[in-house]
Write a structure and sequence with these properties.
The protein has 182 residues and is an all-alpha fold. It contains 8 helices and 2 strands, in the order ββαααααααα. It has a two-stranded antiparallel sheet with strand order 1-2. Helix 2 packs across helix 7 and helix 2 runs parallel beside helix 8.
Length: 182
Amino acid sequence: MERKGDWMQTFTGLQFWPLDPRPEEICIEDIAHSLSLQCRYAGHVKKFYSVGEHSWRVSQVCDPENELWGLLHDAGEAYLVDLPRPIKHFSALGDEYRLIEKRLMIAVCLRFGLPEIEPPDVKKSDDFLLQWEQRDLMAPAPKPWREHGALLPEGILSPMSPRVAEIAFLQRFEELKERWRR
């Protein structure tokens, strides 16, 4: 059967068609590895901070029923990378990217048995992390970012190495997968 677009090779050596994603071709090890090596905020942070660690942290602050969705909320970036917010949300390129990302996230949801619509709690948790990351990992903001409204932890967020983030992501997945099956 003809596939849409071209394929890429994943970390585990699989062929993957990002424009024609199929749930059975999505591999958690590929997601964890790739996201652990991608830096948040297009690299505009004081220290390397991975999308994988961010996802792990989001899963820690979500409501229990949404923790797996929180862990996988950026899984599409393992196959597409991400675009900075001004491009992703305010350009024709971003419009097209979001359509591709949506198709890919539907495949992720099917692969891991999640509802196709991101729960509002996951977005809330993601926004909470955004504020915490901005405070601790970036230069002072030239103007305020959108406010989450929640009190941020007093401690400073200290980023993990890519390898530690990958291991934490996979361990969290195994923990949540077991709970999700019950």
